[in-house]
């Protein structure tokens, strides 16, 4: 298969402008006749459905939630990047482009990333117009802050709830189109198969989650915006229902999965506290601006902390190892996410972890509290203060900056992070890999598009903070409204697609068979227990640090687990009712295949780049070693139950020079 | 610390069937979240080949608004400013009997066990809870300065997660806190002023149509709101509503 990325010719900075003014357009009278299915209602899906509805297409939007407002985009905390240069600090579209390419460790496509940076500017305008209450200065203008991995302030935010506010903005725009009748909304519907007719994506099979009824929905084109697959690890910061099913069913129908092993492990999450744990909670990256990461120097101190004999605050300064500051003096606690995560793992593997499970390091604010306290005392002209008074002043400053995060931490752990250092540990947070798409965001299946986290397009091997929201909205508001035209302009004389074509009936039949099969196994193990075991295999063998041996073994273990699943899973209830266990079983079945492909992809990529760290490809001091000569390509996989096939799209860098990332 | 609990939970097969309470024993521990405790209960039930208790949940970080539940008579349980998913078992003790029910309101029919239909909220937003701007039409983000305080007030109203606790808490089953939060979020901003009159009129009309009750200023909604949305919003809505009625313009 020849992977044609369809990157427009011409200089990088004018590709998108040129494309927009020369792409084929569908006239308004024809738009009304063309039907578009959008699956997913997060930032990318809601923005796409709303924008396509505004253009006049006949849109159907599907979500498995009870309302489009619940999509997991809502949980993003930190902010959204945009090259507005409101801070006058030298930001530009080119700089945002460059930071994103470099942050992604040179494994993303230049043209897509540049377009993303161009669209970023319009996103902010659009969201403000919708009423998104971004943070503002006293003068009434928009405020910016800085974020990891960059040297300018380009992050727009709405307290710690940026994702929520952006999603509500998109949801409101979508609601308006629903009221106008341009979008038909299908809540509580889950896509369970893609229907291809004459080589083109023409519809989906969706299960009504309340009644179990399988529905055949036809359209001229299908747009997937179904998010990432981090839940393959069972424990992640993803919401409980996030899954790969819609994307994976498309892979099973021939779509290619690109770079599936590229997963982002976020360094600052609340550690696991027990076997019953259902998910992990992120503590915003912004905390590393003021928190210092450390573990006890002596293993016996760490052991005493683990058993509860000692507390972190009782370890004297000279017995603490601020390992990020020690290993990376230039960036210290602000190294990128992948680097910080691995460093924490190294310390815990050496036996210096500080939670009962041994898997936690400290994020300590005591130095910041004291520093802010002194500065505040100075400002207020207070002298001769006791240490406690200075600390109290400092705590107030820290509370103003991070109050809601500290509160959330205390709610979950029951510990006061002002008095005792926070315990954190890395957790799966985002997946850079996803469906292979070309410049039009079209997969290798004509008429099937993929937006947002569910495609692989913009973040390479590592995503920078505050860039996921940017990509979701860029794809939905400003890219797909144009690029969809390249496909639909050739479909204006295609009549309405009928949903009783043999391809639809067959897909429905296959879906029914799968459901019947899962319900008929009536084994002895719960779906949850399989998911948990899969997660452990993934985390142990395809997590922060990967080896050939582990990946080979991991792949085998997943295959065995998959067999066991189809022989011994127990799914209670039946199909014709609201049955969350059945929903979960279908999702876990797909994770059991995706997991295998991730192992295979990680095995193939014998280099270390971004979130993907192969122990075989590291420098003597344990740093990542990228191999541009061998691996500067997108690995796009065609699924096969026995031997998936790899296709390569070479990455061509004409505008940036490939450099080794160094944070020392 | 481990604890044995009695969970008295509402079971109802579907919207047409009659429901009733069942009591189960659960071995929990203090570090679990309330929903993880229910996960443990469900794993037990599945192990006994029984049907697990249906409840809705998703992000488990207090922001998506999917989780609901009335715990010992209070929406989202005993703690102020906390969603059910953020409630932890250390606030309960060995031997406790905990009563778990679905939200009860005419406009939120029970679908199964603890799951209710909250789509009426979506329809209230569809009636006017937006600013009419298409992608591509927006002026520069800094074209209209908005005072920090006003922006901040709009944000506080916009923090609503649409969980419906306000309705469940209200003896009248009113959706005034939810509706008013959107009316003030958008009405406080200059971008939203243009459509303010029509918005409040249409949203209130939809709210009535959905079967939500009238507001009689009880204040239970504010007390139980996990995002601490203020009653002031209702006063704002009332002012905006009367203004829209007496402006002489056609709404």
Structure summary:
The complex is a heterodimer of chains A (664) and B (251). Chain A has 664 residues and is an alpha+beta fold.
Largest sheet of chain A: 5 strands, parallel
Total number of helices of chain A: 18
**What is the CATH level 1 assignment of the largest domain in chain B?**
Mainly Alpha
- CATH topology grouping of the largest domain in chain B: Fumarate Reductase Iron-sulfur Protein, Chain B, domain 2
Q: Helical residue percent of chain B?
A: 25-40%
Give the helices and strands of chain B as they follow along the chain: EEHEEEEEHHHHHHHH
Strand order of the largest sheet of chain B: 2-1-5-3-4
Mean pLDDT of chain A: 96
* Low-confidence runs of at least 5 consecutive residues of chain A: none
CATH class identity of the largest domain in chain A: Alpha Beta
Helix count from the secondary structure assignment of chain B: 9
Describe this entry's structure for a reader.
The complex is a heterodimer of chains A (664) and B (251). Chain A is an alpha+beta fold and 664 residues long. Chain A folds into three domains: 35-263 and 429-488, 3-Layer(bba) Sandwich (FAD/NAD(P)-binding domain), CATH 3.50.50.60; 266-428, Flavocytochrome C3, Chain A, domain 1, CATH 3.90.700; 502-643, Fumarate reductase/succinate dehydrogenase flavoprotein-like, C-terminal domain (Methane Monooxygenase Hydroxylase, Chain G, domain 1, Up-down Bundle). Helices cover 39% and strands 15% of the residues of chain A. Chain A is built from 18 helices and 22 strands. Chain A has helices spanning 15-22, 28-31, 43-55, 93-103, 110-130, 162-180, 245-252, 299-306, 323-327, 337-349, 366-379, 387-413, 468-488, 502-521, 527-542, 548-568, 580-604, 628-631, and strands at 35-39, 58-62, 80-81, 145-146, 153-156, 183-186, 189-197, 200-208, 214-218, 221-224, 257-258, 263-269, 292-296, 320-321, 361-364, 422-431, 434-435, 448-450, 525-526, 569-570, 633-638, 645-650. Chain A has a five-stranded parallel β-sheet with strand order 6-2-1-10-18. In chain A, strand 8 and strand 9 (214-218) form a beta hairpin. In chain A, helix 4 (93-103) packs across helix 5, helix 11 packs across helix 12 and helix 16 runs antiparallel to helix 17. The model of chain A has no long low-confidence stretch (mean pLDDT 96). Chain B is an alpha+beta fold and 251 residues long. Chain B has two domains: 2-111, Beta-grasp domain (Ubiquitin-like (UB roll)), CATH 3.10.20.30; 119-246, Fumarate Reductase Iron-sulfur Protein, Chain B, domain 2, CATH 1.10.1060.10. Chain B is built from nine helices and seven strands; from the N terminus they run E-E-H-E-E-E-E-E-H-H-H-H-H-H-H-H. Chain B has helices at residues 34-47, 119-126, 148-158, 165-169, 176-187, 190-193, 196-209, 220-224, 232-246, and strands spanning 2-11, 20-29, 70-71, 74-75, 97-101, 110-112, 115-116. In chain B, the strands form two sheets. Chain B has a five-stranded mixed β-sheet. A two-stranded antiparallel ribbon of chain B has the order 6-7. In chain B, a hairpin with a 2-residue loop joins strand 3 (70-71) and strand 4. In chain B, helix 2 runs antiparallel to helix 7. The longest helix of chain B has 15 residues, at 232-246. The radius of gyration of chain B is 20 Å and the shape is elongated. Chains A and B meet through helix 3, helix 5, helix 6, helix 12 and helix 13 of A and helix 1, helix 2 and helix 3 of B.
